[in-house]
Structure formats: C-alpha cells, structure tokens
C-alpha cells in the first residue's frame, strides 16, 4: 500500500481506536457517529489487509491484533510529526537568526535611504546577519528574482518587473537644479529656456540613454540639449557647481545636495517619481524578507 492509497483522516481515526479499543468511546473523541467510525474501521481493515481490532474475549471493547499493536507507536509518532508540520509557522529574529540578504538598490535609492538604513541595520547582530547591496541590472532583475539571487529591489517603480509584489516608499515631483550664481539668473523657467540649457543626465545606460524628461519632451515634439551623461548621482553636485550645466532630478533627492544649488519648478507637468521596494511573490510570507522590507518602509516614512 502507498501513502496515496489511503485517506490520512483514517489514520487519525485508527490512532484513537487503538488508544480506546472501543468504537463508541473513540467515536465520541472524534466527534463522529459510531456507524461512521465503524465504516472507517472497515476501510482500514481493507487497506491494511488485517482486522486491526478484534472483539475482546471478555466484556465490551476490542483488542488490537498483532498488526494493530505494532502500528500503535509508529502511527502516533508519524501523526505527531504531521501535526507539527501543518502547524509550523516560520519565524525570524534579527537579533538571533543567521541570514544573508541580497538587496539590489539603485543609486537614487541609496542616496535617499542608504545612510539611515545602514545605520539601523548596524543595531542588529553583525555576527549573524549580512547585507549585500548591489546596483540593479535592468535586463537581469527578473531572472535574479526567479533564481533567488536577490531578496529585495529598491528602484523606480517603472523598472520593477511585472508580476513582482511591491510597496511604494515615497513619491516626489521633479525640479531643475543649477549652481548659485548661474548666468541664467533666478527667473522662472519656460519651456524654450529649459530646452536650450546644457543638461546633465544621470544614467547607467550605455549608448544613447534617454531620461524621463527626454521621454516626456518627445511627446511635445521637443528635445533638450543633454551635454553630458554621468553614471552616478553623487557626481552631480560638484559637476553643477563647477560650471553652467543644469540637472533635473526628483526633489526628494536633490535636497540632499541643496547647498550651493538653486532649485526651480519645471515649466511643464510630468508624472511623479515613485521609489518602490519589490520582492518575488514566493517571498511574500518569508519572515526574514518581511522584516527587512517593513524596516525599509519604516525608514522611508520618516
């Protein structure tokens, strides 16, 4: 007989029958009728090809057969293991458990959240927890999630692969930054002026990268003069302060570099920048991943 050949509920009934050696008492414990339990016993006898329980020679009740007696202890052990299995709830304690977390976080994400996040993570056990941050590889993210190579992605919501679960960390409008004392002056921007300025674009793409502003301006049949493209946001402040370039970025990021820069509202309306944290659906109930993403959400809300 194979496991698939028998209803596991019958084994629960058999354990009680072997303990009580009385159909009436066993039926009461199982909260079923005596005829229903007798029918189950008949099925068990067929499955094991053995009577399992025989009428007692004296008085009421039943006596286990040799087969029934030999089944009693291993059956109890097996059912106890199954009960523990179905009741199992995974847990995670960041102060006690060991775990390696891999987080793909964009340059923008690290500028916005990196310092407070790293400060908070250091309050947990450095002997048992490790955190590896890496730059997201746009064409590899979905595959990395599928392979379990990354636990979380923190990036622009537009770059999160389909079918991944995500939560918004924050939203921000865009502003243009220029150095203080820029020859353009402090006048409000108009579309013509904006397009004619020499722009700095932040992008890790190679070839001929396009930014959000370029995508939007193309819908207006306009374009701007992207003079230089840099791979890292941290290079922006000194580059702007050393010349006459301008740069358009989410306001929530530029405030980290506001010293020495003037910020201006754009002369057109574009969708907000949305930074999100994402994870694979199979990790939705993983207590470790849940703990880390809730920690990130908490820091982003401050």
From TrEMBL:
Domain of life of the organism encoding this protein: Bacteria
Parts forming coiled coils: none
Start and end residues of each HTH lysR-type domain: 6-65
Pfam families: HTH_1, LysR_substrate
CDD domains assigned to the protein according to its UniProt record, in alphabetical order: PBP2_Nitroaromatics_like (cd08417)
Keywords of the record: DNA-binding, Transcription, Transcription regulation
Transcription in keyword set: yes
Molecular function GO terms recorded: DNA binding; DNA-binding transcription factor activity
Family as reported in the entry's similarity comment: Belongs to the LysR transcriptional regulatory family.
Name this polypeptide is given: Transcriptional regulator
């Amino acid at each position: 007989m194979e496991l698939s050949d028998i209803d596991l509920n019958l084994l629960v009934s058999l354990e009680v029958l072997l303990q009580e050696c009385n159909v009436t008492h066993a039926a009461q414990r199982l909260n079923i009728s005596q005829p229903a339990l007798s029918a189950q016993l008949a099925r068990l006898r067929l499955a094991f090809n053995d009577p399992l329980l025989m009428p007692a020679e004296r008085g009421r009740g039943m006596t286990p057969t040799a087969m029934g007696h030999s089944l009693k202890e291993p059956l109890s052990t097996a059912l106890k293991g199954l009960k523990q299995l179905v009741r199992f709830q995974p847990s995670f304690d960041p102060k006690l458990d060991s775990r390696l977390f891999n987080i793909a976080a964009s340059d923008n994400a690290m500028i916005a959240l990196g310092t407070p996040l790293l400060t908070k993570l250091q309050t947990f056990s450095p002997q048992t927890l490790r955190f590896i941050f890496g730059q997201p590889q746009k064409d590899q993210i979905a595959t990395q999630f599928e392979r379990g190579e990354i636990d979380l992605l923190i990036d622009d919501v537009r770059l999160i692969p389909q079918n991944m679960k995500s939560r918004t960390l924050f939203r921000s409008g865009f502003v243009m930054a220029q150095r203080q004392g820029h020859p353009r002056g402090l006048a409000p921007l108009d579309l013509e002026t904006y397009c004619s300025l020499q722009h700095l674009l932040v992008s890790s793409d190679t070839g001929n990268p396009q930014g959000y502003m370029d995508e939007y301006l193309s819908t207006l049949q306009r374009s701007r003069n992207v003079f230089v493209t840099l791979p890292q946001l941290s290079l922006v402040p000194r580059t702007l302060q050393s010349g006459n370039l301008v740069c358009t970025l989410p306001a929530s990021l530029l405030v980290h570099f506001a010293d020495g820069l003037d910020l201006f509202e754009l002369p057109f309306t574009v969708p907000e920048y949305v930074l999100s944290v994402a994870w694979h659906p199979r990790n939705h109930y993983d207590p470790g991943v849940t703990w880390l993403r809730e920690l990130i959400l908490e820091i982003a809300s401050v």
